[in-house]
Amino acid sequence: MAVNLLNLENVTVAHGTRLLLDAVSLGVSGGDRIGVVGRNGGGKTTLLKTLVKLESPHSGRVTHSSGLRVGLLTQDVRVDPSLTAHEAILGATAEHTWAGDARVREVLDGLGLHDMGLDSTVETMSGGERRRVALAALLVQEWDLLVLDEPTNHLDVEGVAWLAGHLKQRSPTQAHLVVTHDRWFLDEVNATTWEVHDGVVDSYDGGYSAYVLARAERDRMAGTAEQKRLQLVKKELAWLRRGPPARTSKPQFRIDAANALIADEPPARDDIALQRFSAARLGKTVYELHGVSVAFGKKVLLDAVDWNLGPGDRVGVVGVNGAGKSTVLRLLVGALTPDSGRVVVGQTVKPAYLSQEVAELDPMLRVLEAVEQVAKVVDLGGGKTIGASSLADRFGFTGNAQWTRVGDLSGGERRRLQILRLLMGEPNVILLDEPTNDLDIDTLNALEDLLDGWPGTLIVVSHDRYFLERVTTVTASLMGDGTVAALPGGVEEYLAKRRKAAPAAAPKAKGGDSRAAKKELSRVEREIAKLDQLEAGLHAQLAEQAADFTAVATLDEQLRAAQAEKAALEDTWLELYEQLEV
User: Fold this and answer.
1) Are residues 546 and 466 in the same domain?
2) Cα–Cα distance, 472 to 466 (Å, whole number)
3) So what's the pLDDT on residue 427?
């Protein structure tokens, strides 16, 4: 029988005049695998903080079992900036001690900490790198309950897959509670879904796909007037049923109910019709790469790459962090010039580029004013148009929210506004760099619904494999060796190739090999020292050029390349050192 770990009894929490939890009662037991969903600002993070006693309820009671060990990853990660990554994750544990612990090595490898460099100081790291350090520090320890708020942020596709596998391998007596917008992750690791909305927490059996069905049934049975929302849910459900076969492994009664609900629902999009219409708008040429090479320092990101992107292509781009995914998008939009080769852009191309940085807007503007600055009406193709206010409504800016000042918006809301303005420009080519960051599931559904009928070329860089599968039809990978490869098998094929490419352990040195190993060890140490100097210089330049976003982006690419090269050399150093210790 599962052991009860914690309980909420009639808990009420309000922030100002907003009631986030209204007399909520629920519990978590050993072995529970729970995913938490809901709109941004709806109370998900408040629920987590209340559960772990970081926030006290206005009424009701929170109880923990005796000696409960809770590990918490918050969105606002705080790691002592004076520590190195090694110190923040492993404390004073000596390298020869943790290097012999398979569990610790798995966490460090899975989260790419060696690529960052364990000797790097936290204060020199980006926000994403600090978050990975905090997650690693959590996962190398034992907990009865893991509480994770957006753990997949700043992880690449491979890192997300590794984290899912890691959580699934935990002891059957251990539990986890995960807030995330990554729907593949929700389906992969959870057996229960909690939806936080309107002050209540509704519980559903199963992961994301089971939750979508149950929510659609709940809305239908309640006779809700939110027909627009129900249609989106039905469309999402239709996608789940028509998607990869792995998603259909559900109890038969759920499959039958889903089929009945979506019997008359058309396919998400007609790719052939969209391609035909796109060709009329774009002509034959969109982007062509001829022998393109790009390198930062010794790190080669693209090596004589030939690649054609045609009208109506919908391409998802995957690859390890630092492989050059963002570089490819910047090449296409002309923000970066290749070292050699050329990029041909079609004469009729009108691109819209969503970078990872949130564009700065006049903080005194209202949301609707910021959207109407671009256009008041947008043509969706096929004779369909939509006004700025209606589109803002679909993206969660409803009613009075459209008159909120930009300066009062949260990070996620500014991201939504950035995408809105992008779409209002009526581009015929859209390039999205990690578009799912900071967006809740309902907003992602609205974006996907809009992109379904959008006739143009779409190029998406994302770690969110569900979003990639949902809006793109072709997957391209940057494997880290300077090439771009088409993957008919999508993300699964990419992960299989990455596992196959993992280097085998180096053989141990014996007898006469020790002298050569010592010589090589000295050479590697000299190379690492040079890279340390290069890193220090790049950090200094970043500080000097902080106001120049283009320069910062270029320097950041160079820094990541240097850190990746250094991490590889450190791995080589450790292998050589182990050979000499035999």
Assistant:
1) no
2) 10
3) 86
Q: What's the CA gap between 201 and 19, in Å, rounded? A: 13
Residues with Cβ within 8 Å of residue 523, at least 6 apart in sequence: none
Model confidence at 536: pLDDT above 80: no
Same domain, yes or no: 316 and 412: yes
Answer yes or no: do 100 and 246 share one domain: no
Q: How far apart, in whole angstroms, are the C-alpha atoms of residue 485 and residue 328?
A: 13
More confident residue, 390 or 382: 390
Question: Which of the four pLDDT bands, split at 50, 70 and 90, describes residue 17?
Answer: confident
Measured between alpha carbons, how far is 281 from 274 in angstroms, rounded to an integer?
A: 11
Domain CATH number, residue 27: 3.40.50.300
Residues 311 and 434 in one domain: yes
Number of domains in the chain: 5
Q: With 0-12 CB in 10 A as exposed, 13-18 as middle and 19+ as buried, what is 393? A: middle
Please give the structure tokens belonging to residue 48: 């987590």
**Given a cut of 60, is residue 270 above it in pLDDT?**
no
Which pLDDT score is estimated for 225? Answer: 45
Indicate the length of the chain as a whole number: 582
Task: Report if residue 369 sits inside a domain.
Answer: yes
Higher pLDDT, 526 or 137: 137
Same-domain status, 202 and 212: no
**Which amino acid, one-letter code, is at 119?**
D
What value does the mean pLDDT of the chain take?
Answer: 82
Which tokens is 103 given?
A: 């569990």
What would the pLDDT profile of 75-104 be if each residue is shown by its tens digit?
877 888 899 989 999 988 877 777 778 888
- Note whether residue 505 is domain-resident: no
Residue 371 forms part of a structural domain: yes
Q: What is the pLDDT, as a whole number, of residue 167?
A: 94
Helix (H, G, I), strand (E, B) or coil at 532: helix
Q: Domain range spanning residue 553? A: 513-581
Q: Are residues 239 and 161 in the same domain?
A: no
How far apart, in whole angstroms, are the C-alpha atoms of residue 79 and residue 73?
A: 11
468 plus 364 within the same structural domain:
yes
In a domain, residue 76? The reply is no
What is the average per-residue pLDDT within 343-367? 85
- 153 with 229, same domain: the answer is no
To 5 degrees, how large is the angle CA 451–CA 455–CA 460? 50
Listed residue (282, 333, 290, 334) closest to 312, CA to CA: 282
Higher pLDDT, 398 or 513: 398
